[in-house]
Amino acid sequence: MRAEVKVDKIDIKILKHLIRDARANLKDIAKDCGVSANAIFKRINHLEKSGVVRGYSLIFSPEVAGDFKSFSTIWLNIDLTHETAAVEFLRKQDGLFNIFRCVGRYDIVAYCATKSIHKLEETLQNLKKQEWFREIVVNIWSDTQLLTLENVELKPI
């Protein structure tokens, strides 16, 4: 069992800065919190080591991603009695990366980068063939909007 971590008002201000921008300048955070940049650095390290901050995310522009043309988030509900097999299957799929267990509406989220929408469709068809995937929801990233496909039959054009 993990010990309870105490966060104070300064930690909360730091967390708010990091939520807005995980690469926020330590001097700017320090100025807002009324402490030194070194103190902010130490507090962030403590928040990371104690598990309050578990990681950071990257948001990038698809048009500079080289050969990859399709970026998506795949949300899955699974038969939990087959969770290990499902995760192993996902890890073997081309294009899937950063596979996480979720709490909430979905059981697993996976990020996907493929060279075409057709490759994404192939990946989704492979997922649909597995009996342990009960629901599949796909969010396709676009530089102008977020497109959502929920349990639709995808077919090549």
- Helix percent reads 25-40%
C-alpha-based Rg, rounded: 20 Å
Structural domain count: 2
Q: What is the CATH class name of the largest domain? A: Alpha Beta
Low-confidence runs: 151-157
Order of helices and strands: HHHEHEEHEE
Account of the 3D structure:
The chain is α+β, with helices and mostly antiparallel strands and 157 residues long. It has 5 helices and 5 strands, in the order αααβαββαββ. It has a 5-stranded antiparallel beta sheet with strand order 2-3-1-4-5, covered by helices on one side. Helix 2 packs across helix 3. The chain is elongated and about 55 Å long. It starts with 8 loop residues before the first helix and ends in a 7-residue tail after the last strand. Mean pLDDT is 82; it is low at 151-157.
Q: What descriptive keywords fit this protein?
A:
2 domains; Arc Repressor Mutant, subunit A; Alpha-Beta Plaits; 157 residues; 5 helices; disordered C terminus; alpha+beta
Q: Which helices and strands, and how do they pair?
A:
Blueprint: H1 9-20, H2 26-33, H3 37-49, E1 70-78, H4 83-91, E2 96-101, E3 108-114, H5 117-128, E4 133-141, E5 146-150
